[in-house]
Specification:
α5 runs parallel beside α13 and α12 packs antiparallel against α13. Helices cover about 80% and strands about 0% of the residues. The longest helix is centred in the C-terminal third of the chain and has 32 residues. The protein contains 13 helices and no strands. The chain starts with a helix and ends with a helix.
């Protein structure tokens, strides 16, 4: 029985590993870019790899680089990262309903590796998601992100100093590249981005808040306002529907 259970676990791990290959390939160029930008931002090789090992959150790591460049304090960076990644509470809760029952420690370990992409792949699986499958899926994705981050840093170190310094503008180009596709699909995202930009500009010009807190408060205020407006809008639609 123990041998059968071991074979089943290995089989599930292999399936998860194979399912994660496409994610690993997709992560490679993004992680390479992160490593390159981390070098130009001033991080050491160890700091770059350690951030990918511990944080392991693409958007949050890019935001952290931007905030570090602006001289933002540690607490503001942590809070901003928490806000950006708060969706992981929902993803983990939803995936927990689909996963097999297992020891809490195993769930805690593989939940660290849950990203938007691994969540999508696991959630779309027809069968019950096993622990072995999650470990295989997360491991190859995690390895790709960490290793390619380090390679990106080494590639950045080989570039001429002037080119390294000019690469800092690529960070803003990356944010624009992430934002524009979402803006095309949703007017809500356009309003959210515009409102957050307005709040941040006001806070910055008036020196009411430091750079880090201006970003955090602008993000929270715009999200709350847009959601309140959305709620009022849906309530009005519901009232009209009842009539």
């Amino acid at each position: 029985m123990a041998e059968l259970a071991m074979n089943k676990t290995q089989s599930e791990f292999r399936k998860g590993f194979q399912s994660g290959v496409s994610i690993a390939i997709g992560y490679a160029p993004v992680a390479l870019t992160f490593g390159l930008l981390a070098k130009t931002t001033g991080l050491s090789f160890g700091e770059t790899v350690l951030m990918s090992l511990i944080v392991y959150a693409g958007a949050s790591q890019y935001i952290s680089l931007s905030l570090l460049t602006l001289g933002t304090g540690i607490f503001e960076i942590i809070l901003t990262t928490f806000i950006v990644n708060i969706r992981h509470f929902l993803m983990s809760a939803a995936l927990n309903e689909k996963c097999e029952e297992d020891q809490l420690v195993n769930k805690a370990v593989y939940s660290f590796g849950i990203t938007d992409e691994t969540f999508s792949v696991a959630a779309m699986r027809d069968d019950t998601v096993t622990t072995g499958y999650m470990f295989g899926l997360n491991l190859i994705s995690y390895m790709s992100w960490v290793i390619c981050s380090g390679i990106g840093f080494l590639l950045g170190a080989s570039l001429p100093q002037t080119l390294q310094e000019s690469m800092s503008i690529a960070l803003y180009a990356m944010f624009i590249g992430l934002l524009v596709p979402s803006m095309k699909k949703s007017v809500k995202v356009v309003c959210l981005a515009a409102l957050a930009a307005c709040f941040n500009t006001i806070f910055s010009l008036t020196n009411a808040l430091s750079t880090g807190w201006a970003i955090v408060i602008a993000t929270l205020l715009s999200a709350v306002i847009i959601e309140l407006m959305e709620g009022v809008k849906n309530k009005q639609r519901g009232s009209k529907g009842e009539k």
